[in-house]
Design a protein that fits this description.
alpha+beta, eight-stranded mixed sheet, 6 helices, globular
Length: 312
């Protein structure tokens, strides 16, 4: 058995005072007024103090070479170009590409409060050695409960009767994550039963796992729908899939006798939709810490950790 050599890097923590605005909105600099992020630098001065139109913020909000337009980041991936809105890009723990976006913009987004970029110095709080030692202890305890078990080959542990590898140190795109699982004698994990996801998520939470993970599910096309790698369909809805906030009004319907469709609750607007989106946000299936390890459709080229199951 090969010896796994792991290097634990020092971790720097940044604290932000969170503004109290609904998801998708930011607080103006000199007031408690909240505005949607897409109003930033639209030449409308939606904040009474004008902080949404500050010169340095708007210069950065132009998106670098501006190929994708104001408020977007231009991602050059292989031979193509993808566009991501700035808030989405900043919220990703592992952005899908490198860009020339001034990362102080992301500090503004994460803080939830508008302010000139010059106020963001990029300084971070220092972590004392006691914290570093605690993180080291946590890392090795996580390795012990994820990489080995007497009834499973290395690097697998036993969960719910299956040998599963929770290889959290690696960060790979979906295709590379699948190849990694193949190399260690397995395949990306499939979750067919409620009990499977409950057992897995309980294990992740109990061991303070904060990584995002790839699963063995994908959307080849809208006709076939979401499918596991064993060619079985992915079950949609509760309790598997995450909720996503939206700025749009979504009314929900119910069908009676297979022919009558009605709005429920007197046509009330709901600002949450359940993943997967239509059209999908991404074509690969993941469990993300930000979604409390509920499943979501994600961009296949993003970097996440592989969740593998050993071949039977």
């Amino acid at each position: 058995m090969a010896i796994l050599e792991v290097v634990l890097a020092a971790v720097v923590l940044t604290r932000h005072a969170a503004a109290e605005c609904p998801p998708g909105q930011l607080e103006c600099a000199q007031s408690s007024q909240c505005i949607f992020s897409h109003y930033i630098c639209d030449k409308g001065e939606d904040c009474s103090d004008g902080s949404d139109e500050s010169e340095d913020l708007c210069q950065a909000w132009g998106g670098g070479d501006n190929t994708c337009g104001k408020g977007y980041v231009t991602c050059k991936i292989w031979d193509g170009i993808s566009c991501y809105d700035i808030p989405y890009y900043c919220e990703q723990p592992h952005p899908p590409c490198e860009s020339d976006l001034d990362m102080r913009v992301c500090e503004v987004i994460k803080s939830g409060k508008l302010k000139p970029l010059s106020d963001n110095t990029g300084e971070v709080s220092q972590v004392n050695f006691e914290v570093v030692e605690a993180l080291s202890d946590l890392f090795f305890s996580q390795v012990n409960v994820t990489f080995s078990h007497p009834d499973c080959p290395f690097p697998y542990t036993l969960l719910g009767g299956r040998c599963i590898s929770i290889f959290f140190p690696a960060k790979l795109d979906w295709g590379s994550a699948r190849a990694f699982c193949n190399v260690v004698g397995g395949e990306l994990l499939t979750l067919h039963h409620h009990e499977d996801i409950h057992t897995l998520v309980t294990h992740l939470q109990e061991n303070n796992m904060v990584s995002d993970f790839w699963l063995g599910g994908f959307l080849y096309n809208e006709t076939v729908g979401w499918t596991w790698l064993d060619d079985t369909p992915v079950e949609l809805g509760t309790p598997f899939w995450a909720l996503r906030h939206t700025e749009e009004c979504h009314k929900r319907n119910m069908t009676i006798n297979d022919r009558i469709t009605l709005h429920v609750n007197e046509g009330q607007c709901y600002q949450y939709t359940q993943a997967p989106q239509s059209p999908p946000l991404g074509h690969c299936l993941a469990l993300t810490y930000g979604n409390y390890f509920y499943m979501s459709d994600e961009l296949c080229l993003e970097k996440r950790s592989p969740l593998c199951v050993a071949a039977a």
